[in-house]
Amino acid sequence: EVQLVESGGGLVQPGGSLRLSCAASGFTFSSYWMHWVRQAPGKGLMWVSRINSDGRSFTYADSVRGRFTISRDNAKNTLHLQMTSLRDEDTAVYYCVRDLGLVATDCFDYWGQGTLVTVSS
Amino acid sequence: DIVMTQSPDSLAVSLGERATINCKSSQSVLYNSNKKNYLAWYQQKPGQPPKLLIYWASTRESGVPDRFSGSGSGTDFTLTISSLQAEDVAVYYCQHYYSTPPTFGGGTKVEIK
Fold first, then answer.
1. Among partner residues B48, B102, B107, which is closest to A47 by beta-carbon distance?
2. Looking at CA atoms only, how far is residue A104 from chain B in angstroms?
3. Which pLDDT score, from 0 to 100, does residue A110 have?
4. What is the C-alpha separation between B51 and B40, in angstroms, rounded?
5. Of B17, B66, B75, B77, which residue has the fewest beta carbons closer than 10 angstroms?
6. Model confidence band, residue A104 (pLDDT cutoffs 50, 70, 90)
7. CA distance to partner chain B, nearest, from residue A3 (Å)
8. How many CB atoms lie under 10 A from the CB of residue B42?
9. pLDDT tens sequence across B11-70
């Protein structure tokens, strides 16, 4: 059974930093592109970032580029999102998401339960 | 960025009746080279993450009941629930994956009348 379990969320002040992690199991993690997608409270969904299977290629949404860094540790089946210079508008539930295909599609077939990040003074 | 527009924002349907949700993209999401529409549908129940229902506009994900179907091509798409069940109460999102960034529609809330 595919499982994605996020951790690391919490309350942080504007301008602060936070590192999210996602523990993957039930599939060959090193074969799949992975993503982060976020959802502000009561709002819709927004794609944040993707990383390829070997961790050497990554892409970001314009609103987080230069502030967020995606990475992965295939030996530990773990995905990370380092978030810096956080803003109020980054407040959201952050989902760790698996890509549908072994070649990136940007379609998402498995989602974690999410971790809440609250940016507030 | 491609803008995805869903309609209606919400709808109430009687149990056993048909529910239809529309999604329009600001540009075509049909790749001529493979004739595939890069369009997916997700279901999100309260307090849960989204769940993939449909991809390539009309391919049902494994385990999804066959009362859910997707149709359309180019810029106009439809998700149909042929006979609404109580467990189908949720918010439904369309999403394109034609280009970067992938973007979602604003969601359609489906309730029981």
1. B102
2. 10
3. 98
4. 11
5. B66
6. confident
7. 13
8. 26
9. 999 999 999 999 999 999 999 999 999 999 999 999 999 999 999 999 999 999 999 999
